[in-house]
Amino acid sequence: MLLAQITDLHIKPRGRLAYRTVDTAQCLEKAVEALLAVPQAPDAVLVTGDLVDAGRPEEYGLLKEILSPIRLPLFLMPGNHDARGPLRAVFADHRYLGSDGPIQYTVEEFPLRLIALDSLVDGQGGGQLGAAQLDWLDRRLAEQPERPTVVAAHHPPFATGIGHMDKIGLEDAAGLAEVIRKHGQVERVLSGHLHRSIQTRFAGTLASTAPSTAHAVALNISPDAPSAFSLEPSGFQLHWYEPTAGLISHTAAIGDFPGPFPFFENGVLID
Ligand SMILES: [Fe+2]
């Protein structure tokens, strides 16, 4: 199974740039193109939050339009820039989004089970899952203890060293760790929010963040790093699951790059 992860799309209304600089709609168009150009079609696409920049209905409308060439099962999650009401209204055909409360759901139809969490707290940058959602997660994981599972939350449950982002991290990361540690089938905790590819050990499994389809958070591993972004190559991830290998994750850069070029000519390594 191949699970694509795109994240932090930050779509603005048509013609408006994020932070007066980033054409996030154009970035997403390029991301969709790059995703669909991979020789292996993903089985599903997971979008780990910050779908739009300000939770506006027209932003979700534009998001829907740009994502429409992806004719694959598509699973959306909210981030701190999202608003549940407009998201649910525009994507009313996405029944898994539910009709009220947190947008938490499981995806059961693939060899790898997906559990999406909702860490959005209205009006703030930092995230929280809350006791009720952690209890829900615990019960979902207890249902199928043998089933390889990925848990996704917009806010990563670990400190990254990038101070200004850690200040708006996941408040109850320790609570999430307590739940995850009880369930050995969790292959990975997938997140966005950091606009970079970062990995660490977490609660007996691995946790990772994926690059944004748009701007990156500037690489500055310091508690006093100024809040800043850069336009280094954007990207997405492909998580390949195979029962004997487990979950293998690839990061792809988005852009027009030369190649691929062959290494060999007539069976001989090109010198
Ligand atoms: Fe973001």
Contiguous uncertain segments of 5+ residues: none
Bound small molecules, which ones?
A: fe (ii) ion
Domain unit count: 1
What's the overall geometry? globular
CATH topology: Purple Acid Phosphatase, chain A, domain 2
Walk me through what this model shows.
- This protein is an alpha/beta fold.
- The protein has one domain (2-257): Purple Acid Phosphatase, chain A, domain 2 (4-Layer Sandwich).
- Helix content is 21%, strand content 24%.
- The chain has six helices and 15 strands.
- The chain has helices at residues 24-37, 57-67, 84-90, 131-143, 163-166, 173-181; strands at residues 2-6, 44-48, 74-77, 105-107, 113-116, 149-152, 186-191, 198-202, 205-209, 216-217, 229-230, 235-242, 246-253, 264-265, 268-269.
- The chain has a six-stranded mixed beta sheet with strand order 4-5-6-7-9-8. Strands 3-2-1-12-13 form a five-stranded mixed beta sheet, with no helix packed on it. A two-stranded antiparallel sheet has the order 10-11.
- Helix 2 links the parallel strand 2 (44-48) and strand 3 (74-77).
- Helix 1 (24-37) packs parallel to helix 2.
- The radius of gyration is 18 Å and the shape is globular.
- The two termini are 37 Å apart.
Task: Please give the structural blueprint.
Layout (H helix, E strand, L loop, with lengths): L1 E5 L17 H14 L6 E5 L8 H11 L6 E4 L6 H7 L14 E3 L5 E4 L14 H13 L5 E4 L10 H4 L6 H9 L4 E6 L6 E5 L2 E5 L6 E2 L11 E2 L4 E8 L3 E8 L10 E2 L2 E2 L2
Parallel strand pairs: 1-2, 2-3, 5-6, 6-7, 7-9
Antiparallel strand pairs: 1-12, 4-5, 8-9, 10-11, 12-13, 14-15
The structure holds fe (ii) ion.
Fe (ii) ion binds next to loops.
